[in-house]
Design goal:
Elements: H1 13-19, H2 23-74, H3 77-80, H4 84-93, H5 98-127, H6 132-142, H7 144-147, H8 151-159, H9 164-186, H10 191-216, H11 230-264, H12 267-280, H13 285-304, H14 306-333, H15 335-343, H16 350-357, H17 360-376, H18 380-422, H19 430-443
Helix pairs in contact: 2-6, 2-9, 2-11, 2-12, 2-13, 4-8, 5-6, 5-8, 5-11, 6-10, 9-10, 11-12, 11-18, 12-16, 12-18, 13-14, 13-17, 14-17, 14-19, 15-16, 16-18, 17-18
Length: 447
């Protein structure tokens, strides 16, 4: 039996019988388990502290904080550079080249982080020249781009289906800084203090990932990464540039609504919208966990058998849609009750926003599930077209709907843009139409 499968004895006998003797499946389930522990902890602690923070700040200040967060997130793709899936794939295929791959990734992410930080300062000065508080929060939060360079080490652990260590690092940093935020609320701290706390979390994660990687590789004959390998860096960028711009398009249609709300109708309306999003988007961690754990097996089956590969992909879509329904239906029905119970009457207007916005989970889950197929099939250019269509749809609909309907209009625009990007665009070409039909099967629970 696989060394990491001691937990099998706690499963029912029929399930245990299907898993015993299958080390690859055991590794995936073990990895998924750790990721679920991390995300469940974030769900429980994050929502609790986030709700407390929203009540403490009120809609106006909560909107000001979330404007800065959304503004910085909009530039995040320049720090990520679309490398995540590409680097994991290369590490799975070529573990013997990991020092060159990781070194090139670290170098690229450092350059990308510096570019994102600089861009954030220039853009916020242009957009809000007289808003000192917004400029200060953006400056603090955007330093986090530099610490995210260490995410390259996380890619290695993902490729080895060993997320236990990274979960411990990220979970510990998250819990510690959540406690710090609680303390800041108790002592009646100002907005800037919460921005510093968010930066401190990224700093702890970056340092932790670096230390853990170096510690676990101690004793390995070759432990040092090879930085500034320009040929490998150029090759990685040639593979990921479309994903970089796709990530930017994704961020535009995921965050432009918040920036436009603040600019067109004010931060208070953004505060209501952000309160609803905290309950809606917290579930988006689920497809990331499922897909990250399933990706190594999908990559392996792609090389072995097309039939097996598409069967696994269909199961992935089915599972993701099922999970999305489990989230969207009860959250939509109970939206107003949840908002009043958690945030209080000051946020009552967020109930309708949540009722609409939570249905974006259906298309977000499918969009995340599509990522391994896009990478394996080399469809990054179509992915760029797909996400650009979503970004354009969201921007135009926000311009039309926000002035009339405020936060509710922004939620309608986001739902429509997610449907366009993750679903409707797939029926436009012969190669992607097969995935469109697979998604339809998933909607209807057909195998």
């Amino acid at each position: 039996m696989h060394a990491d499968a001691k937990w099998l004895k706690y499963l029912p006998a029929p399930m245990r019988g299907r898993i015993t003797g299958r080390p690859e499946l055991q590794a995936i389930l073990n990895n998924s388990g750790w990721l679920f522990v991390d995300k469940f902890l974030r769900l429980l602690v994050g929502v609790s502290v986030g709700v407390w923070l929203a009540r403490y700040l009120g809609p106006l200040q909560f909107g000001q904080l979330n404007f800065a967060v959304a503004f910085v997130a909009l530039l995040g793709p320049f720090a990520v550079l679309g490398l995540d899936g590409i680097v994991v794939r290369e590490l799975v295929k070529h573990p013997d080249q990991r020092n060159v791959i990781l070194g090139a990734t670290l170098s690229l992410k450092l350059l990308g982080g510096m570019a994102a930080f600089t861009s954030a300062q220039l853009l916020i000065w242009w957009l809000r020249p007289d808003d000192l508080l917004a400029r200060q929060m953006v400056a603090i939060l955007s330093v986090g781009f530099l610490f995210q360079t260490a995410d390259a080490y996380d890619f290695w652990f993902q490729s080895q289906v060993k997320s236990r260590l990274t979960v411990a690092i990220k979970g510990s940093a998250f819990v510690l800084l959540s406690l710090v935020k609680v303390a800041l609320i108790i002592i009646d701290a100002g907005l800037l203090a919460f921005a510093w706390a968010s930066l401190a979390e990224l700093a702890l994660i970056g340092v932790g990932l670096t230390l853990v990687y170096r510690t676990t590789q101690r004793g390995n004959p070759v432990t040092g990464v090879v930085l500034w390998c320009w040929p490998r860096m150029r090759w990685l960028l040639s593979q990921s540039w479309a994903l970089l711009f796709s990530g930017l398009a994704i961020m535009i249609y995921a965050r432009i609504d918040q920036i436009m709300l603040a600019q067109l109708v004010g931060e208070r309306e953004l505060g209501l919208y952000s309160a609803a999003l905290r309950l809606s988007e917290v579930w988006y961690a689920i497809p990331t966990i499922v897909v990250a754990s399933a990706s190594p097996a999908l990559i392996a089956s792609y090389a072995r058998s097309s039939e097996q590969y598409y069967a696994r992909l269909q199961r992935l879509f089915n599972n993701l849609v099922g999970l999305a329904y489990l989230v969207a239906i009860p959250m939509s029905l109970l939206s107003s009750i949840l908002i009043l119970w958690l945030y209080g009457p000051e946020y009552a207007g967020a109930g309708t926003v949540l009722m609409v916005h939570v249905w974006t989970a259906l298309f977000v889950f499918l969009g995340v599930g599509l990522t391994p197929w896009v990478i394996n099939e080399g469809m990054t250019k179509f992915y760029l077209l797909q996400t650009t269509a979503g970004a354009v749809t969201n921007t135009l609909l926000n311009l039309l709907l926000i002035p009339k309907f405020g936060a509710v209009g922004a939620s309608i625009a986001t739902l429509a843009s997610q449907a366009v990007a993750a679903y409707l665009m797939l029926c436009t070409t012969s190669k992607t139409r097969k995935i469109f039909y697979m998604q339809n099967k998933a909607f209807l629970f057909r195998a």
